[in-house]
Amino acid sequence: MENILKVMNVSKNYTQTEVIKKASFSIGVGTVCTLLGKNGSGKTTLLKMIAGLNKKNSGDIQFLGRAIEEAFPASLSQLGFSIENPKYYEHLSGQENLALHLTYMGVKKTESEVKEVLDQVGLLAKKDMRLKEYSLGMKQRLAIARAIVHQPKFVILDEPFNGLDPKGIDDIGVLIKELAQKAGMSFIISSHLLHQTLEISDKVLLLNGGNIVVDEALTQLKATYGEQLREKLIYLMEDVK
């Protein structure tokens, strides 16, 4: 399988603390990859480095076959992400926020194409509502819409199910899987909702203490651990040093 992302011996330090320790992995085209780890394990730091928001201290990251330093900003239109707390223009509507985002990205989409993405995330009926009137769950849906509206090849989602009700979690999970299978989008998703995330995943990465201690296809993990997979992953998050 062709790789869209390669991370090779990447490390990140904050003052005297090594947050990410020589991380290496790859993600193939059309792959949904789950990034697991307890709070403080370095998940968001790693995602930010992949997105070009944080500088690495050592190692290499290749996006679309090019070093990340060379790939951005030229390849920015091929990347979508929602990391930590997305910022919006609260006085604008959901549709207007997406249109403005497309302008920033230098991507042209028709109004009907923007509405189609709003429909995909369940916000079409709320497209003209101002963001200051959106609920937390609605803002989360819009964050996902903003990450995919320009049809990128690679999408980074940090806790995409936060604020969503059970139906919303299921709807967004189905959408992610469909985009991977039908549009060839690749995803890396960080989430505390282990069961729901594994339902849509092809590959699992697990961080513990800045180290990647699991880098396996989900099919292989299921074959190895069977019904004990969830318990094994929880154990590895907590106990591997």
Helicity level = 25-40%
- What gross morphology would you assign? globular
How big a fraction of the residues is strand?
25-35%
The count of helical stretches stands at 9
Strand order of the largest sheet: 6-7-8-3-9-10
- Mean of residue pLDDT? 92
CATH class: Alpha Beta
At the fourth CATH level, what is the homologous superfamily? P-loop containing nucleotide triphosphate hydrolases
Distance between the termini: 32 Å
Main β-sheet, in a few words? 6 strands, mixed
Secondary-structure class: alpha/beta
Q: Tell me the Rg in angstroms.
A: 18 Å
Low-confidence stretches: none
The counted number of beta strands is 10
Query: What letter string, H or E per element, gives the SSE order?
Result: EEEHEEHEHHHEHEHEEHH
Structural features, described:
- Belongs to the ABC transporter superfamily.
- Pfam families: ABC_tran.
- This is ABC-2 type transport system ATP-binding protein.
- The chain is an alpha/beta fold.
- The protein has a single domain, classed as P-loop containing nucleotide triphosphate hydrolases (Rossmann fold), CATH 3.40.50.
- The protein is built from nine helices and ten strands.
- A six-stranded mixed beta sheet has the order 6-7-8-3-9-10, with helices on both faces.
- A hairpin with a 2-residue loop joins strand 1 and strand 2.
- Helix 3 crosses helix 4.
- The chain is globular and about 50 Å long.
- The chain starts with a strand and ends with a helix.
- About 40% of the residues are buried.
- The mean pLDDT is about 90.
Summary of the model, kept short:
By secondary structure, the protein is of the alpha/beta class. 37% of the residues lie in helices and 27% in strands.
